Amino acid sequence: MRAVVCHDFGEASVEEVDRPTPAANEVLLEIQRVQLSVTECALYQGESIAHAEVIAERLADGPARLFGHEFCGTVVDCGSEVDQLAVGDRVYAPGKIPCNECGYCESGFKRYCPSKTYIGYDIPGALAEYAALPAEALRPVPDSLTDSEVAALQPLASSVLCVRDSGILSGDIVAVIGTGVMGYQCAQLALAEGAQQVLVVDIDAEKLELAADRGLHPINGTECDPVDEIMARTDGVGADVVFEAVGGDQSHATDGSDPIAQAMGAVKAGGTVVQVGYIIGDVTFSARAVRKKSVTWQNPVTGIAPTGPGRDTGNFAAELVASGRVSISEYTTHERSGLDSFEEIVDITTNKAKYGAKGPAQLSI
Fold it and tell me: Rounded to whole angstroms, how far apart are CA atoms 201 and 84?
């Protein structure tokens, strides 16, 4: 089969490799579509962010099959121990793979497993015609979803966890700083959780228009001070919950105009700031400022969480899109065909403004 093989940072080729045989706990997937994440593209280009050490180690060991944790695939073979999936199921991977051996796993807290295996980082992902992956990390999807929607589901599954961990109560005022993929999703989910009003901040007028179409209240950061505007719209109290969904390179969490500082400034006393975006490097913050407002700075844990008997956040994310309660298709604006388009997909995802892309680009295989 053909697969993308990485030789160094920023250096990859499409090569013929052996088609994998699924282990007892795995399924063999035929891959239809992959969506490269911003994190994967940054790692490929050598940025020192989450998973950078793992990527460097794998490249140091020789050519490596990397990336591709956001995908749509169809089960074509099942290992002998797999009973939750069947040949013909279309699936995606909302979760990481817990070790199932540590104290966290044995006591039912798999989300907190310190030794998770990450698809596309620790093991080969879906940048290939076929992939063999543990069934535990996969979830089937409704037939009504397109391949493009399925490939874009993994960020929504993470957004579901962010909103569930935020503690939103019915009637809360919620603010979201940044309406990228996960910010847009968290804002919609906040409404679904019963928020009375969701204020969304961005500097992209098109994204703010999309947000307004979904019943969200846009604030254009080029036209006002977002913190002042949120305070004005909440009678000087601030939002009950604020999602910081920008991430990236920021310097200070409580002073200045960085997105985290805006979130800390816009939240009410006793409120919660949810850190959705991944931060590059370190940030400085004033412990006194956080303590003075009694702010909870929530950093959600990735993975899959149960929502009830036989149900979890991975299934729920797919159902949200299938029912129309949450929309994600607006952000899948660019796609290319064939594994040979890998480098172009990286460029589009890294330079979305240059290409007019709203979210990561997708690659059909």
Answer: 41
